[in-house]
Amino acid sequence: DELSLYPLLIKRLQSQKVLSWLGVQEDSCVLQDTSAIAGSEGRYSRPDITLAAIRTWKYDPKRTLEVYSFEVKNRKGSNVPAVYEALAHGRFVNHPYLIIPRTKLDVENSVLIRKTCEREGVGLIFFDLRAATIDPGFDITNLSFEVEAERRPTSPRTIEDFLDARLKGSAKTTLVRIARGTEE
Q1: Beta 49-57 vs 123-131: how paired, if at all?
Q2: Cβ 13 vs Cβ 49: under 8 Å
Q3: What is the DSSP letter of 92?
């Protein structure tokens, strides 16, 4: 089921390779499962995973907050409506992504999802499922970014309200510390 994918995907999303692809430094972000934290903003207001990063640029002295949402779907939920669910998260974040399994996904459906993501500016990430080698269950492999999310100019107030409602206290504290450039 979809819930069992979250811990495995969080582990992959925290990898240096993925963070580097997103342009995020490992020590300048927080990543959290936000699927169970209800919001009052409507049906599609709860991304499964949220990444908030404080980014710095070589020639710009300002720090910027960039927020990424990841809507996770299993094979059954991998369809065009899932793209629009991820798109709805763009109301609260800068970079909405849809993450779906490539394994045994109907090719025609896969192409339609990709085209819809490209048209709507939603990022698309595929992964493969394989039987686990040690424990019963499965592993996630071959995480691949197929479509990059278009950056949304979401207002800082909206993003701040979203993060205050979704992040746990320790994640909020860490993010504020990173934003201020202070050590623990």
Answers
A1: unpaired
A2: yes
A3: T
Cross-strand bridge partners of residue 97: 70, 123
Rounded to the nearest 5 degrees, what angle is found at the Cα of 34, between the Cα atoms of 4 and 17? 75
Asked if 86 and 121 touch (Cβ cutoff 8 Å), the reply is no
Please list the residues that pair with 123 across neighbouring strands.
97
Residues 52 and 167: their CA atoms lie apart, in Å, by: 10
Could you tell me which of 74, 108, 95 has the C-alpha nearest to residue 147? 95
Task: Find tokens 């490209």 and name the residue.
Answer: 118
* Average of per-residue pLDDT across 10-38: 86
What's the predicted TM-score (pTM) here?
0.89
Closest CA to 171 of 59, 78, 86, 49: 49
| pLDDT higher at 26 or 145 | 145
Q: Are 78 and 105 in contact (CB under 8 A)?
A: yes
- Report which residue type is found at 145: F
The span from the CA of 166 to the CA of 149, in Å, is: 21
Residue type, 161: D
Tens digits of residue pLDDT in 51-104: 999 887 778 878 889 999 999 998 888 899 999 999 999 999 999 999 998 877
d(CA 106, CA 181): 47
